[in-house]
Structure to design on (69 residues):
């Protein structure tokens, strides 16, 4: 029963997780398709850097305007 519950929770959280990743990449003026790099071992290194350490672009970019400015 715990396995079934875990699968339901994982399924419910996968789409919001991808949405946050794509939004974070768009903040840096990168395509949301860059999340696919997480499927490779070497691709995780730049993806973790972009998601955790790199600041977003200031001002407008190709995806949206900066809500702070």
């Amino acid at each position: 029963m715990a396995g079934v519950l875990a699968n339901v929770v994982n399924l419910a959280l996968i789409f919001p997780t991808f949405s946050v990743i794509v939004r974070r990449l768009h903040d840096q003026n990168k395509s949301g398709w860059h999340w696919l790099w997480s499927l490779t071992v070497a691709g995780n290194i730049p993806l973790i850097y972009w998601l955790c350490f790199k600041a977003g672009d200031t001002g407008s970019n190709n995806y949206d305007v900066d809500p702070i400015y």
Q: What stands out?
A: The chain is about 50% helix and 0% strand. Residues 14-69 form one domain. The longest helix spans residues 2-27. The CA atoms of residues 7 and 42 lie 27 Å apart.
